[in-house]
DNA sequence: ATCGCGTTGCGTATGCCGTACGCTACGCTC
DNA sequence: GAGCGTAGCGTACGGCATACGCAACGCGAT
């Protein structure tokens, strides 16, 4: 009755994760349903559960996969500051390529898979030269991660509002009906076209953070 | 047959929002279901929809309400730096008191209600003395918001893991089975008890960001 | 060959979810 | 007391994740 394997060979955890990522990329995380993933695989819904405990575990695996895909290069020869820029640009690219990552990583429990740990290790070692106390270094990484996440949210929010690449545009749109006279600063902000491109806006904000971090590191004491 | 009003008087949008916040506080956002809210109000499920368009709108209203509850004090007499600490501590308190805020505000669309706009206006005006270009000021606020959000996530993640108030504890727990020799920096981090309390850890991290912001402001040029 | 068994695929069914639709009963105003 | 606007809500629907158990196969032991 039932063919043992579907049109694309037998199921596997890897294939399921790959397909789920594709679905989430296209229709968003909330519309990524087990049924849709199974359909795209030419499989029955319940077949997925032979390879994945539940949907949450699948999402975790998706995050791990993407994190692994954006592995970090050898760090030798580049300074901590450039390393942080690399880190931030990688994550930034990942968030823009896979918008669902924003929701998936916004849960209270941070990811603890091998790829995530490796990324954290890479980032921490890049900060060695600053000789920060370990908790301060970890906090610095967290701060950068959160900055990237927040910036990506702004840009993606703008994209969804159909505002092209200008992060300010979406605000202007949403604020259409608001009484801007009551909020003079917001009004001034809305009237301000970003003098730089989206990438520069992002990188400059990162440098603000890095300046703060640098002031606490060894070069500061020397 | 059906009494026109429930045991607690007629329904109202306000009462629904209040009750929903209570439910979310107790059972979490994902378990905050229309049915549960209605039950607690002694009302039928569909009655809620006379006052609220759909669940998303209800959640938005909840966020607005909480944002308004944590209104900001008069700013006269305090410097921008202290103002940012006030801002951060308020948000911090809100996130810890209402853990669901983390998920609710992690969507791509930032809240645009009156209370949220007022909060943004307050923060922007507090930065006036730095004379930053408006986009840079907005970015600074965003950075701080994201920092608060991320720190709250760490602390709440630890709480959920039953680790009391030490943010490092939960990491240690989760990393139990991991090969820490492969990640020396993570190992060092795990072995490190936070030398400060949770509040100091948070405030110090904020100061790191503020240092970076200050370096771009007017006092820096003077 | 045949049997037995572990493994993989999946159909069916359950319970919960948000919510569309339309009825009911009430408080008005004339 | 007749008509009507409105708040409450019962019922029903479609979609969701997933528990359970059967079916079809691969394969080593007999």
Of all chain pairs, the largest interface belongs to: A-B, 62 and 62 residues
Can you say what the CATH homologous superfamily of the largest domain in chain A is? Answer: Tetracycline Repressor, domain 2
Overall average residue pLDDT of chain A: 87
Unreliably modeled segments of chain A: none
Please give the number of β-strands of chain A: 0
At CATH level 2, the architecture of the largest domain in chain A is Orthogonal Bundle
Any key phrases for this structure?
DNA-binding; Arc Repressor Mutant, subunit A; homodimer; 222 residues; Tetracycline Repressor, domain 2
Q: How would you summarize this macromolecular structure in one to three sentences?
A:
With 222 residues, chain A is mainly alpha-helical. The first copy, chain A, contains eleven helices and no strands.
Task: Give the SSE layout.
2 copies of one chain form a homodimer.
Chain A: H1 13-27, H2 34-41, H3 55-69, H4 80-97, H5 100-104, H6 114-126, H7 134-160, H8 167-174, H9 184-191, H10 198-214, H11 218-221
Helix pairs in contact in A: 1-2, 1-3, 3-6, 4-7, 7-8, 7-10
Chain A binds a DNA duplex (30 and 30 nucleotides) through helix 2.
């Amino acid at each position: 009755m039932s063919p043992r394997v579907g049109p694309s060979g037998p199921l596997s955890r890897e294939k399921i994760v790959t397909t789920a990522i594709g679905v989430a990329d296209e229709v968003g995380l909330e519309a990524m349903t087990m049924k849709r993933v199974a359909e795209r695989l030419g499989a029955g819904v319940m077949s997925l559960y032979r390879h994945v405990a539940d949907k949450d575990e699948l999402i975790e695996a998706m995050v791990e996969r993407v994190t692994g895909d954006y592995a970090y290069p050898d760090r030798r020869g580049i300074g901590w500051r450039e390393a942080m820029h690399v880190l931030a640009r990688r994550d930034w690219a990942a968030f823009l390529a896979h918008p669902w990552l924003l929701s998936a990583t916004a849960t209270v429990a941070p990811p603890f898979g091998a790829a995530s740990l490796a990324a954290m290790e890479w980032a921490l070692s890049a900060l060695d030269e600053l000789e920060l106390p370990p908790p301060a270094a970890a906090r610095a990484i967290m701060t950068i991660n959160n900055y990237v996440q927040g910036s990506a949210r702004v840009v993606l929010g703008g994209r969804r509002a159909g505002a092209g690449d200008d992060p300010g545009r979406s605000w202007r749109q949403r604020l259409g009906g608001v009484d801007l006279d009551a909020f003079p600063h917001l009004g001034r902000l809305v009237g301000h076209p970003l003098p730089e491109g989206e990438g520069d806006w992002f990188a400059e904000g990162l440098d603000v953070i890095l300046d703060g971090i640098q002031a606490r590191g060894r070069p500061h004491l020397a």
